[in-house]
Amino acid sequence: MTAKPSSIRNLGPASDEFYGRAGITSAEQLRDLGPDEAYFLALQAGGKPHFIGYYAMVMGMQGRPWNDCQGSEKKDLQKRFDTIKARLSPKDKGRSKLETALNELGVIKKV
Q1: Please, where are the H alpha helices in the chain?
Q2: Measuring CA to CA, how many Å separate 3 from each of 16, 49, 59?
Q3: Least confident piece of the model among 9-13, 17-21, 50-54, 107-111
Q4: Total number of domains constituting the chain
Q5: Is the backbone of residue 63 left (phi > 0), alpha (psi -120 to 50) or beta?
Q6: How far is 63 from 2, CA to CA, in rounded Å?
Q7: Are 38 and 25 in contact (CB under 8 A)?
Q8: Is 70 a member of any domain?
Q9: Residue 25 sits in a domain of what CATH number?
Q10: Per-residue pLDDT at 62
């Protein structure tokens, strides 16, 4: 049986759902994609961006506790996180499919 993403340190059942929406259903897939691409795909699939969730996953993939990220390393991860979010198209920036559809119809304010 293939190990779920939640088998990686710092990740839990919510991570299985978060990455699963993007078709990432195993820890092996997550590792093969790498943290930045996997996180981008999850956001593109409708996941909400959250810096702590991102860096907890990065730390976990290194076998480290989530709160081990500090100082310049944390600043560097913040830059990577911001770069990942910037890759999203305006309609994908943390919006659900319903919000995206309403946005396209002009019902809600465009980003």
Answers
A1: 13-20, 27-33, 35-44, 51-61, 71-86, 97-104
A2: 10, 24, 18
A3: 107-111
A4: 1
A5: left
A6: 19
A7: no
A8: yes
A9: 1.10.150.20
A10: 97
In 3D, which of 24, 27, 18 has the Cα closest to residue 61? 27
Report the 10 Å Cβ neighbour count for 38: 23
User: Are 61 and 30 a contacting pair, CB within 8 Å?
Assistant: yes
Copy the structure tokens of residue 62: 């290194």
| DSSP category for residue 50 | -
Tokens describing residue 91: 């309609």
What is the mean predicted confidence (pLDDT) over 24-46? Answer: 97
Token pair for 44: 């593109």
Residue 100: count of CB within 10 angstroms of its CB: 17
Report if residue 52 sits inside a domain: yes
Q: What is the pTM of this model?
A: 0.80
pLDDT digits (tens, 9 = 90+) for 44-89: 999 999 999 999 999 999 999 999 989 999 999 999 999 999 998 7
Q: Give the rounded percent of residues in the chain with a pLDDT score beyond 70.
A: 85
Token couple for 47:
């996941």
Assigned domain for 75 exists: yes
